Amino acid sequence: MKPPPDDFAQRVLRWQGQHGRKDLPWQRTRTAYRVWVSEIMLQQTQVGVVIPYFERFMERFPTLLDLANATLDDVLAHWAGLGYYARARNLHRAARQVRDHHEARFPSTLEQAQALPGIGRSTAGAILSLARGQHHPILDGNVKRVLSRHFGIAGWPGKSDVLANLWRLAEHCTPSARTGDYNQGMMDLGATLCTRSRPACDRCPLTDNCVARRQGRQSELPSPRPRKTLPTRSTLMLAVRNADGEILLEQRPPTGVWGGLWSLPETSPETSPEQWCQTYLQMPPLRIEMLPQRRHTFSHYTLIIGIAAIEIDKSPPRIQDRASQRWESLASADKLGTPAPISRIIADLTNTPI
Hints:
It contains 16 helices and 7 strands. By secondary structure, the protein is α+β, with helices and mostly antiparallel strands. β5 and β6 form a beta hairpin. α3 crosses α4. The longest helix has 16 residues. The termini are far apart. About 35% of the residues are buried.
């Protein structure tokens, strides 16, 4: 393997010392727990979006034990809006494993950290290097972009051979001293200068030896994920309100899309809302209004959401007695933890009188 420039790491460290981010909420008190939560939140989510969620999450769950002892409903309620809810479920499961098997202290080895739900090699390396000063390379999306461009690595980083090559480069470039500062510098470079579009090459400390800049290939590297057409699915959601203005919510199964969150009851788009009321609620509706459809795109498909706003005159006893369903006021529904598209539907219903 061609070695990096002798001062590759030193350039990153000097730049980090002068221009890197040093006052993010999880950097002010850099415990393994706080770094861990931030790293999970930052997966597929930008820093500016994460900051207010992180601060609210830390206010409610200031310690690992607070998180481990909380209910999943409470955790999901404080995650609602960030998306990719499997991250929250894994974080909660992992916190309980750390409580039960590691004396409520985040593991000290890479192998133990990687054994926790939701923590891969890069996340484990980031936590242990940033919070404990250990020597571990990382390879998040920002670091992949910096390395791909600097060394001219073609191919989508999701391919196993390309990923293996990037890991070899990450290992080769990561210094044994000040690893945490270097890793933070690489992440900051990718986030602030070596961005996906319009990278600020003129301000980059690595620009002199960058293959992508020398060859004018910044827009080509790293190679994008091969495009595929997302399938489309359809559903009908039922926004049922009783005479008190409360809305019927249903808790989704613990796994799968929006797992464990509270949502609106769903049925097939071919189902008649009138028939659904007779079958499911065992009463006729007073009024039904079909609202405009919504679209929500997941990573693997697009969901077309039909919405039937339904008014009934009382709460059916069979619903009141079921733990997976509950009546909530429109104002308090969000506190349970609802997916962002459902929160928006409920917010719009606030302005739709029954």
